[in-house]
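// run 5 | inverse folding | seed 20
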């Protein structure tokens, strides 16, 4: 009985601890979202010297420079209500006080599949000095099912900033560009705080499982406590003569 009680208590404690852990994650995620929303609404500033996801995610920036005039890199995607298409990523050479430009990545936005070829959208081509505004972004889009990049055709299936930077010879820094021209391709996405936050739902699931475990454990322990050994069998010699 003691072992059964210990097993029931351990299971309940584990499920409750997972529920409370998800509540802690909820508070952390809410603080992270509040910080990102405050940062994204700030006035754009210069590109940090060494931006990092921890310190600069969603930071608005304003830079000057020029696109490197290298072939576009396309990220396969889909966008409602436009359907399947690609995100256009280009290398931007940002001006610096020291003179040597900094090569960074720019996600310029979405083009539909029919406009994959840059020649079909001449309005999207940019040359010469540009002023570019947007927010710094690092993405977490990968999973085991995403295909490997097609390097020959410069086709990718996720915005893996470090991997893109290594392939294109840039800093591991990406700017999600603001609208250069709302009527022309690529179509830029408005910056939004896109953190996944289902911790309250997860906490509810764990607490529900804890309640179910407690009920089942109560029924189980009660049955164990009320169980009686089988009645002893009659003495085989009873009733015989002496």
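// decoded
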């Amino acid at each position: 009985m003691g072992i059964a009680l210990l097993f029931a208590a351990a299971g309940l404690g584990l499920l409750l601890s997972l529920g409370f852990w998800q509540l802690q994650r909820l508070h952390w995620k809410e603080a992270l979202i509040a910080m990102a929303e405050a940062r994204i609404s700030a006035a754009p500033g210069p590109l940090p010297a060494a931006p990092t996801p921890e310190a600069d995610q969603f930071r608005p920036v304003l830079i000057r420079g020029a696109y490197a005039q290298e072939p576009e890199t396309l990220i396969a995607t889909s966008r409602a209500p436009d359907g399947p298409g690609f995100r256009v990523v280009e290398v931007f050479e940002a001006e610096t006080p020291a003179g040597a430009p900094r090569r960074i990545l720019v996600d310029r936005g979405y083009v539909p599949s029919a406009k994959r070829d840059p020649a079909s959208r001449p309005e999207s081509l940019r040359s010469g000095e540009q002023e570019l505004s947007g927010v710094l972004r690092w993405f977490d889009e990968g999973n085991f099912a995403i295909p490997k990049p097609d390097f020959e055709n410069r086709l990718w299936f996720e915005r893996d900033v470090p991997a893109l930077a290594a392939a294109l010879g840039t800093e591991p820094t990406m700017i999600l560009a603001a609208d250069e021209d709302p009527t022309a391709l690529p179509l830029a996405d408005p910056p939004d705080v896109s953190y996944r936050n289902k911790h309250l739902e997860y906490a509810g699931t764990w607490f529900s499982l804890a309640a179910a475990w407690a009920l089942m454990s109560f029924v189980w322990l009660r049955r164990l406590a009320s169980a009686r050994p089988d009645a002893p069998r009659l003495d085989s010699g009873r009733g015989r003569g002496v």
